[in-house]
Design a protein that fits this description.
about 375 residues, mainly alpha, two-stranded parallel ribbon, 16 helices, about 75% helix
Length: about 375
């Protein structure tokens, strides 16, 4: 991080001492109305909690963002839990987790019920046709601000960012060893430490195999727990992993059902990975939805509660700081690459290109509420298909 950014973070006013009830209420609303995926949700948190409300300093936010990008799990949920941990300890992290995840999970359950009952969601596909362009615009607008915050004018971090952007856009998946390589490169260039075995041991988080349980509930739970360990930074990274395991290997869903599941993730607010609730419901009803959600979010919660205080205590270590800066730049580049991947699938013809361009212009010119923009794009999609 540049000296200017560090000075600015220290100069910010300290946040209020008792903000946990307001924080829980904020994340309940964000989980209900927050569209756009992890990069957009992180952007909303920065805008609302750091720039406007000043409940957190810029450095506290960047620490949480770095931890969320460094550890496996969906970025937005992990960042939210970390902020709750800062203001309320384990209880704060727990309350924020429930407030942030529950609204979108209940929405997904309702959509899943109607999907199974009526045999498909043609109207959802039509809505997603229009929503896709607006979502890409929202993510792009938020990405610009987040890139400026996390990378600034640091040339090394920009190089790491661009490499990961290209790698993610080309391979359409997030490559874990490139994250670690970005962190080690930043560490060597900025801090020149002695090699520490603790860094190499981080890769253990992604190791291990998951054996089939004795029941379908536990099979779903174990599969999605493993899936959570392969999500770094962007919730979109889980999509290729889920497709291979659910459609190609286990045959739990058909190709069309999986496409519908991705559509559900994009037209509902909250974390993108909440689509696992839809998948779990299709496979094993209500209990399958609960198993899938627990598998994805429980490891994230445990990482934050266990590693969060430890990370905060040693966040000022120059070697750790340099390593995290590199990982942050790498994860931010992967998220930007995921925007390109999403655009390939969502912005595919004249009408969707027009929706994306108009949405981006509106977002840059005026502060259009994201739910309003998403609703307008969904209506446009329905009218075009009709």
């Amino acid at each position: 991080m540049s000296q200017l950014a560090t000075t600015e973070s220290r100069a910010e006013a300290a946040p209020p001492a008792r903000v946990l009830p307001q924080l829980v209420w904020y994340f309940l609303r964000l989980g209900t109305w927050g569209f756009g995926g992890p990069i957009a949700l992180a952007g909303y948190m920065q805008r609302d909690l750091v720039d406007e409300k000043r409940w957190f300093t810029r450095q506290e936010f960047l620490d949480g963002l770095a931890l969320a990008q460094l550890a496996p799990g969906p970025l937005a949920a992990q960042l939210a839990m970390y902020l709750g941990l800062l203001r309320g300890g384990t209880i704060g992290a727990s309350l924020v987790a429930v407030a942030f995840i529950a609204p979108s999970f209940l929405m997904v359950l309702a959509l899943s019920f109607f999907y199974v009952r009526f045999g498909g969601l043609p109207w959802m596909q039509a809505a997603f046709y229009g929503v896709g362009g607006a979502v890409v615009a929202i993510i792009a607008r938020s990405a610009i601000k987040l890139v400026k915050t996390a990378i600034g004018k640091d040339k090394l971090l920009w190089c790491i960012f661009l490499v990961l952007l290209a790698a993610t856009a080309i391979t359409e998946r997030e490559i874990v060893w490139l994250f670690l390589a970005g962190g080690l490169l930043s560490l060597i260039v900025k801090a020149r430490p002695k090699l520490s075995p603790s860094l190499s041991s981080f890769a253990v988080l992604t190791g291990g195999s998951v054996s089939a349980g004795t029941s379908l509930f536990f099979q779903i739970l174990l599969f999605f727990t493993k899936a959570s360990l392969f999500v770094f930074g962007s919730g979109l990274a889980i999509v290729p992993f889920l497709h291979g395991g659910i459609v190609l290997e286990r045959h739990w869903l058909t190709e069309q059902q999986f496409i519908d599941a991705v559509a559900v993730a994009m037209i509902t607010p909250g974390p993108v990975v909440i689509t696992v609730g839809f998948i779990g419901y299709i496979v094993h009803g209500w209990s399958g939805a609960v198993a899938a959600a627990l598998g994805v979010f429980l490891p994230v919660y445990l990482v934050v509660v266990i590693a969060g205080p430890f990370y905060k205590k040693f966040a000022g270590n120059p070697q750790l700081r340099a390593f995290v800066q590199g990982v942050t730049a790498a994860a931010t580049g992967a998220i930007a690459g995921a925007i390109i991947v999403l655009a390939r699938r969502s912005v595919t013809d004249g009408p969707t290109i027009l929706i994306a361009v108009i949405s981006l212009l509106l977002l840059f010119k005026w502060k259009i509420p994201e739910p309003l923009l998403i609703s307008a794009a969904a209506i446009a999609g329905l009218l075009i298909h009709r």
